[in-house]
């Protein structure tokens, strides 16, 4: 495990489009098909990373708390499943079911989507407004495995509340820290 921070894509960046298979439904989806009415959260995650395992419950709760507010979550795994078999699509499906993910868990086999988003670690979180302009990138909150800080999703929740209230997010945006994406 290598501690890797987010690359912090510039705010205002237009969300790169994609068309990826959902490991749960087996269907392919584009960003435009999955985006939320008011905001879209894109999370680069994987199955095996202890930092992701630590936040899975908050990701599931975040999705449930904001779905009725026009916010959709989309999870993407871009890890090399050949060298990291725990991150294979069939196990992604199992992980999504076990963690009660009510959002798509997409597989980026070519890793082109991760590169387009300049994703670096898992978890890596991006919040886009209704026009798919980047308004937040970085950590869910200050909680990490073993640091005894409660898991709240505070930073992402604040960013989403700002979008929904049409207010500027003036809170400092901190990079996420996690395992590096496993490149081919």
What would you note in describing this structure?
With 184 residues, this protein is an alpha+beta fold. It has one domain: Glutaredoxin. 26% of the residues lie in helices and 23% in strands. It has helices at 31-34, 50-66, 89-98, 112-116, 154-164; strands at residues 3-5, 19-21, 28-30, 39-44, 71-77, 105-107, 121-122, 124-129, 134-138, 177-180. The strands form three sheets. A five-stranded mixed beta sheet has the order 6-5-4-8-9. The protein has a three-stranded antiparallel beta sheet with strand order 1-10-7, with helices on one face. The chain is globular, with a radius of gyration of 15 Å. The model has no long low-confidence stretch (mean pLDDT 96).
List the helices and strands and how they pair.
Blueprint: E1 3-5, E2 19-21, E3 28-30, H1 31-34, E4 39-44, H2 50-66, E5 71-77, H3 89-98, E6 105-107, H4 112-116, E7 121-122, E8 124-129, E9 134-138, H5 154-164, E10 177-180
Parallel strand pairs: 4-5, 5-6
Antiparallel strand pairs: 1-10, 2-3, 4-8, 7-10, 8-9
Offer a few descriptive terms.
globular; 5-stranded mixed β-sheet; alpha+beta; 3-stranded antiparallel β-sheet; single chain; Glutaredoxin; 184 residues; 5 helices
In brief:
By secondary structure, this protein is an alpha+beta fold.
């Amino acid at each position: 495990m290598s501690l890797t921070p987010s690359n912090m894509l510039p705010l205002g960046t237009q969300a790169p489009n994609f068309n990826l298979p959902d490991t749960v439904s087996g269907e392919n989806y584009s960003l435009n098909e999955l985006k939320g009415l008011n905001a879209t959260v894109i999370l680069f995650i994987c199955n095996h990373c202890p930092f992701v395992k630590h936040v899975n419950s908050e990701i599931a709760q975040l999705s449930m708390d904001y779905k009725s507010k026009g916010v959709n979550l989309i999870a993407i795994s871009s890890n090399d499943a050949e060298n990291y078999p725990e991150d294979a699509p069939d196990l992604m499906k199992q992980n999504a079911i076990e963690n009660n993910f009510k959002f798509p868990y997409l597989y980026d086999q070519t890793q082109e989507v991760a590169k387009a988003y300049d994703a670096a670690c898992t978890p890596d979180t991006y919040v886009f407004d209704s026009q798919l302009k980047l308004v937040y990138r970085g950590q869910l909150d200050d909680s990490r495995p073993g640091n005894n800080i409660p898991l709240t999703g505070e930073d992402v929740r604040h960013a989403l509340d700002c979008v929904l209230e049409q207010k500027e997010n003036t809170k400092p945006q901190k990079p996420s820290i996690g395992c590096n994406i496993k490149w081919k």
